[in-house]
Amino acid sequence: MNEDKAVELIHLADRENSVVVRVLGRRGPDELDAEVVISSTFCNGRLDLCLSSKDLDDWAKALDDLAVERDVCWMTDMRNPEINIEFHTQFSIPLITVEDVRGSCTAMAVPVQLPGGWVDEQRGHLDRVRRM
Q: How many domains does the chain fold into?
């Protein structure tokens, strides 16, 4: 699957910053090739991912926590970069951090102003990925 046919699993963006996880295709019966792209007016980063059905289940649970503004850390198994979403920070908006825990050991964090209904939008993305 090329990037034109990629399906977004996560799309968190405002005018200046964004964190997007795109599913690029199937690697095997239970694995998806994907990428996470984090962008800001200051810098940009991109990392490859390999998502499993457990990762998708964990994201569904994380969305339940995010719906009530509980901080989450998704993908903590050291196979992929960790994605943290924090609500109660020095910013008045959520802070999203992508940390490459298994590779470069670098992290990038961006505050993102999320619109109303953003959790339901992410659930819609998850449903589309599960139907792939």
A: 1
